[in-house]
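README: folding subset

This subset contains proteins for which both the sequence and a predicted structure token string are available. Records are stored as plain text. Below is the entry for Signal recognition particle receptor FtsY (397 residues), shown exactly as it appears on disk.
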Amino acid sequence: MSFFKRLKDRFAPTEDRREELPLDELEPQEHDDQPAETYSQPAPKNDDWSFDFDDDDLMSIEEFEELEAQQIGAKFRQGLEKSRENFQNRLNDLLAHYRTVDEDFFEALEEMLIQADVGFNTVMELVESLRFEAKRQNITETADLREVIVEKIVEIYEQEDDELQAMNIQEDDLTVILMVGVNGVGKTTTIGKLAHRYRQQGKHVMLAAGDTFRAGAIEQLQVWGDRVGVEVVTQAEGSDPAAVMYDAINAAKNKGADILICDTAGRLQNKANLMNELQKVKKVLSKAVPGAPHEVLLALDATTGQNALVQAKAFKEVTDVTGIVLTKLDGTAKGGIVLAIRNELHIPVKFVGLGEKLDDLQPFDAESYVYGLFADMIENSGVETTDEDTEESNHAG
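--- output ---
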């Protein structure tokens, strides 16, 4: 099965299903005056919806997984619209201008990818791999290289251990997640959406307001806590962040919480102070809960492009970052920064922000990502989906 065909089978809804029931109608709707705990996912409204049901009138596992994959594909497709237009239009223009695979084409491809913020080192690696593949497969026309380009992008991201991609959630003990990042990148919003996500999974979630220096930071986190229905442990503005963490850990243990998400100050002006502060916080957490923090997530604003890469390098120097949350990916045309972060820093992107809704914070998946970047190209590739191929794709996904 071709790579485009596999992605199309996994993520793209058939035309009749897309027309009968838009995927938006299956997504939880967000209302400011509605408590988070009352959000629900409505049932399909169209009697002609063609899923199979078992004897108990429940959707089969296979059909549910197919629908879920299509919903995820739709989210990435919509959230990466600006980046997709940038990638696809430039790549299509390039393929139309250069019909023959030669050095001029590869140099133009390098320039295009660098402008998309894929990162210089990553671009060099990708293009070198494409040169090799073109020779190996004896590809002489650029149109025949289209699918190989997309496949190589996935390979670059997935070249390391996939287990790093999963969140380190403790099943029978308290999980502590430390959130770091400079001010203004959407760190507090990410904490709120992450709390909502785990609460929807039935977890008892609490928050710790450890950013005690920025004016309004504690109140902002409290607003999010109220919005998604989770308790926030706070102290007065200007308090020692480590003291907040100490109180939060004790409160989380006493109340049987499953997950504690800890906010931290976002100052990057003085690396020494930031390092000392984070080390102090981590010492308090690890002493109270062995192995904590189980995740150190760095929030980065995708719209800042290469500056996000600079921030990631700076934080990597002062703390052990286990994963990236790339916010505002829907607001930029330079979605290639995902590849630069992964390939040059060897830190997995664990979540991406694809919009303003509570459920628009999505776990990152390389194939979902490239589908979002190249959806039109994939769907118009001419490959047909069959029931047998769809079942095979579901098992592969």
